[in-house]
Amino acid sequence: MKGLLYILVLLLSVTASAQSISTTIATASIRVDKQPEYPGGTKAIAKMFIDSIDLPSVKWQEREEQDDHPEITLLLVINEKGLVEDVKVLKSINAKTDARCVSLARKLKFKPAMLDGKPVKVTYKLPLKFDMEF
């Protein structure tokens, strides 16, 4: 049976905080007036990942977790221009899928987060859940 792939972008747990960069992602939590926004919203992010992820790379046989709902969580650094500067995998599926998701995340372009009317650099937690049927 042909597999179906659905990605749910779980933005209830999305967080943004002002941040600074060193060799690793370091964050300083502050509240921003406006979170970063992806044009088209969460549905557009989900569609981009659905259209770009290779289904065989997330098959349950290739994952350590033996379930039909693998999840990856990415931590994005979004700069003052809305560009993704850095991506870190917080929760992994497998090396191939992680690398593809990181590559896709680097291409995202957001409306930047705002603080006191000025764009600011933030970290943005992006959990992606794959619901699969075989």
Q: Summarize model confidence as the mean pLDDT.
A: 74
Which sheet architecture does the biggest sheet show? 6 strands, antiparallel
CATH architecture designation: 2-Layer Sandwich
Counting helices, strands and paired strands, the structural category is alpha+beta
Alpha-carbon distance between the two ends = 6 Å
Low-confidence stretches: 1-27
User: What spatial form do the alpha-carbon principal axes imply?
Assistant: elongated
Kindly provide the radius of gyration, computed on alpha-carbon positions and rounded to a whole number of angstroms. 15 Å
Number of domain modules: 1
Helix content: 10-25%
Order of helices and strands: EEEHEEHEEE
CATH class term: Alpha Beta
The percentage of residues in β strands lies in 35-45%
Fold blueprint:
Blueprint: E1 4-9, E2 16-21, E3 25-27, H1 41-52, E4 71-78, E5 84-91, H2 95-106, E6 113-115, E7 118-120, E8 122-133
Antiparallel strand pairs: 1-8, 2-3, 2-8, 4-5, 4-8, 6-7
